[in-house]
Amino acid sequence: MSVNPGPSQLHSSRRVIASYGRYREAERTVDHLSDRGFPVEQTAIAAQGLRFVEQVTGRRTVARAAAEGAGQGAVVGGLTGVLLGLFATATAGLVLLVYGMVLGLILGAVSGFAFHTASGGRRDFSSTGRMEADHYEVLVDEPVADEALWLLGEAPPPDSSR
Known about the structure:
This protein is of the alpha+beta class. It is built from five helices and five strands; from the N terminus they run αβαββααββα. The strands form two sheets. The chain has a three-stranded antiparallel beta sheet with strand order 1-5-2, with helices on one face. Strands 3-4 form a two-stranded antiparallel ribbon. α3 (62-85) runs antiparallel to α4 (90-118).
C-alpha cells in the first residue's frame, strides 16, 4: 500500500495536447501555457520510445587503466595530505600534501593496473551513456485539456460552464 499517491494515481485521466521530437519544444509549450496563467501543475511532459544509447569513446588498455588510477589516487592522496596538513605547520602541511599525492599516485596506478588485469579482458573499452526518446508528449489533466488547447490556438474556446 502506497502512502503517497504516485503520478498515475493523482492523474488518472490525461489527454495528449501536443507531441514533439525534442524535449525543448515540449518545454516551450508548457512555458507558453504558464505565461498565459494555465495551471501547469496539471501538466506533464512524457518521453515516449525511451532507449539507452552507449557511445564507445575508446579502447581501455592496461596503461590507460593505470594512468586513470594514478590520477584518481593523486587527487585522493592530495586531499588526504591537505586534511592532515591542517593540523601541522605550514612547511609540514606542504610536505604532507606532496607525499599524499605521490603515494596516492603510486597506489592508484597499481590498483588501476591490478583491477584491469583481473577483469580478464571484459569491457576493454570506455564509453558514455545517455537516454534518448523518440518523442515527447505534453499531457494535461482531462478537465482542463480544452483550455490548454485553446491557449495553444488549436481549438475553439473552452466551455466556460465549469
